[in-house]
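Tokens as discussed.
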């Protein structure tokens, strides 16, 4: 149980870093030409027109599994003596790593606004790309 709590705390603390890098990196793009975002993030996966703006979309989704160890204690009696033992097993929990970034530009191709959604596993490579000098 302590391992699970430690793993969850590590994931939560790291995901805060990814979120901060995403927010800062995307905020730094506002007011720049969309070509700057393309240079950092690569070519977008799609674009759409909405209310006179062009919205560029980057995204990824990947399914995987994460090992989760479980320890259980077994008690019993052999003859008249109590017996204790522990068993550790590993199960594999399905996880989805995903990220979506949307950047809106005006007719002049200057970035006006952005939004993103996702998790640490999906967004970490985008966050790294956005924070590179």
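Sequence:
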């Amino acid at each position: 149980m302590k391992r699970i709590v430690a793993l969850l705390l590590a994931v939560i603390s790291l995901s805060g870093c990814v979120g901060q890098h995403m927010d800062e990196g995307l905020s730094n793009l506002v007011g720049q030409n969309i070509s700057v975002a393309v240079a950092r993030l690569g070519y977008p996966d799609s674009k759409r027109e909405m209310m006179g703006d062009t919205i560029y979309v980057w995204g990824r989704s990947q399914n995987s599994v994460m090992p989760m160890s479980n320890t259980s204690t077994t008690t019993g009696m052999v003859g008249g003596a109590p017996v204790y033992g522990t068993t550790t097993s590993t199960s594999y929990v399905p996880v989805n790593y995903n990220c979506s970034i949307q950047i809106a530009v005006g007719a002049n191709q200057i970035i006006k606004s952005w939004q993103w959604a996702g998790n640490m596993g999906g967004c970490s490579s985008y966050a790294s790309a956005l924070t590179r000098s």
